[in-house]
Amino acid sequence: MNRHTRPGVAALLLSLWLGPLHAQESAGLPGTAPLERRDEWSREMLAGISRFADRELDRSVTARAARWQRDLSSSAAYARSVEPNRERLRRLLGATDVRVDSTLEFVATTQRPSLLAANERYEIHAVRWPVFPGVYGEGLLLQPKGGVRARVVVLPDADQTPESVAGLTVGVAPGAQLARRLAEQGAQVLVPVLLSRDDEGSGNPALNRFTNQTHREWIYRQAYQLGRHVIGYEVQKVLAALDWFARENERGPRVRLGLAGHAEGGLVALAAAALDPRVDATLVRGYFDSRQRVWTEPIYRNVFGLLREFGDAEIASLVAPRALVIEPRAAPALPGPPAPRPGRAATAAPGTLTSPEPEAARRELDRARALVGPALAGGFHFAATPDAALASLWRALGDPAPAPSSAAPAAAGASDAATTAARQLRQVRELERHTQRLLEEAESVRLASFWDKVNPRQAKDWAAATRPWREQFRQEIIGHLPVPATPPAVRSRRFAETNSWIGYDVVLEVAPDLIAWGYLLVPKGIAPGERRPVVVCQHGLEGLPEDVINDDRNARAYGYYKAFGARLAERGFVVFAPHNPYRGRDEFRVLQRKLNPLGLTLYAVMVAQQERVLDWLGTQPFVDAARIGYYGLSYGGKTAMRLPALIERYALSICSGDFNEWIRKNASVDLRYSYMFTGEYEMFEYNLGPTFNYAEMAALIAPRPFMVERGHSDGVGADEWVSYEYAKVRRLYTRLGVPERTTIEYFDGPHTINAAGTFDFLHRHLNWPKR
Fold first, then answer.
1. Closest Cα partner for 282 from 371, 372, 396?
2. pLDDT in tens, 384-420
3. DSSP 3-state helix, strand, coil percentages of the chain (rounded to 5)?
């Protein structure tokens, strides 16, 4: 059944098992406006978030100015003034690992020499150079036979081989052979291979798990969680090449350094030039545009928080006053990820690539010129043709007189498809091993940055002591979406009545285009002036508020939720069952893509929604605002870890069917249940690994009561890893002197609400007697 058409059908089923509706069905709660009966609040919520994100994406262009303090008085003053922006870009791109000393090495075997081809002007060698321990850049070196007139790194598109831009591939147009043309002019040229859009290496043969994710997405997913990025990795390979060039310059001759890149290579070249002032001139082909629709592009271009500070024009402004040539050459047109082959799961994120429109590229370059002023923008050039682009680059490299073309180099060694495929897989596996090492080191980083720095040993001091980390979690991981200070506009209608409670459908205005929606169950028999505790009962992925109160034992929802919201209302708790916007498959996942460039996540929206809900609940005469707990299953368990960590008004939290060694769950390529192998591409949270695992999130909830509900047969994780992570939580509460405030309940069952120990926990810590 289509989940978007289900509410109307489900409402009918609800009416059947709830019994006759009250005669005054439309009557709402006092102090609220009437709410018309509608079955599409979920879709309206998603549409509103989309409109909000679109508006913020447009607004980001002008809002970026507040993050820059440019001093245009001189080149030196300008460089100093933008250095903080340069460092922030470095962190956003994950180009933060310390590089090793880079020495170029020839790649040869007993059957294949490093020398692949030569002519009267230059030789072509297979080479590699170290970047990090165990990680190498690989590609081709085009070495002039005479004097070196410049040193240039040429970056092909992800689906081009170095051989194709060096003139070693038959059938490639001469205009595309950029490395060859530069070598003909006497440049020493290094051509790295980029991770491709193939999927051959995207999986784990030991687990027999394979995906249709491109190599770029495969590395992006695991790296993103650990504060790294496939873009940053490839930038680092370029910077390591520049390290070698710089040493060659020290030995002589001292010549200018350049970068040139096409399409994906253009992206990397632009970013590398922005980060490294050693680059004298840069040519970007087939990549330069406003990035307002980056969310439609492949997910490996998703950079958290980028558009708050940087579009392509702002990145270009970090290149000034050095030379930057923009050529709007056609880029690959890609409708999406590779089609899944037999034996490969269709888990890749959607995303398309199109060529930037020449006028759009020109407008963005004009915007870059306006940012830095005419005195510093003299090196910015727009080139309409490949020849004009090459001539502009060559002039910027200090030699205005190009030499005539030479004959194609004659092949000297083999460079076949098997060799290039093996090289590509080496690049994938090296970055995979490097990232998995970072995964192993993440716990030590968290120990040093969090646990070793928070000193209080008393529960009363803990919340204040952890406030800086709570703000870090809010600002850097989840994102902060401020809500208006005015009381929310609320609409409601009574939709159901049982012998124990009355149910209200409630919609609250959060901010322009943003709503909160849920079901409020009010127990019968509340005495005048009596205030009851509240349990926020949270559904999981693709769920709806009705799922947590659906008592139809034949319904799919009952198998997961056991109508736990209705059961708690029968026990006398006020229950609020909010709708969270993780519904609609790619429809909601694309919202995460829209929000990420703004430094926001869907959790930021949920925090804002819940803040408004709590504001309103606190005004109800039957609610005790000091006794509101949160209890969520599955994706609701994820929110149970994050929302109460940030919203201190929650008196307790229960995480059901989700608590985990969360960083491994996301980034490991060795766990069968890892999100590396699933289609839930929205799960990955930038830089979460070195900062907050679930134990650290629980520490932000402490010393408030916290519980985990875990079924032995729940496939979301393994008992061993769940126990390992929870042991840190138990230790913390014990050291704070409040061990009774935390517990974990194991039960012999699957991914479901167990409603045993958790109900006791709610009664005890929300101070409500059992009935």
1. 396
2. 999 999 999 999 999 766 666 667 777 765 568 899 9
3. 40, 20, 40
CB atoms inside a 10 Å sphere around CB 83: 12
Taking alpha carbons only, the member of 93, 173, 99, 177 closest to residue 140 is 177
Task: Give this prediction's pTM.
Answer: 0.95
Determine the Cα–Cα distance for residues 168 and 190; give it in Å rounded to an integer: 14
Identity at 60, one-letter amino acid code: S
**What is the C-alpha separation between 89 and 91, in angstroms, rounded?**
5
| DSSP strand pairing (187-192 vs 203-204) | unpaired
Identify whether 335 is preceded by a cis peptide bond (ω within 30 of 0): no
**Cis amide prior to 133 (ω within 30 degrees):** no
Q: What is the C-alpha separation between 279 and 754, in angstroms, rounded?
A: 61
Burial bucket for residue 161 (CB in 10 Å: 0-12, 13-18, 19+): buried
Confirm if 676 and 221 have CB atoms less than 8 A apart. yes
Smallest Cα–Cα separation from 275: which of 229, 253, 242? 242
| Structure tokens belonging to residue 406 | 């030479």
Neighbours of 416 (CB within 10 A): 10
d(CA 433, CA 606): 35
Helix, strand, or coil here: 430? helix
Contact 396, 258 (CB under 8 A): yes
Return the biggest CA–CA distance within the chain: 98
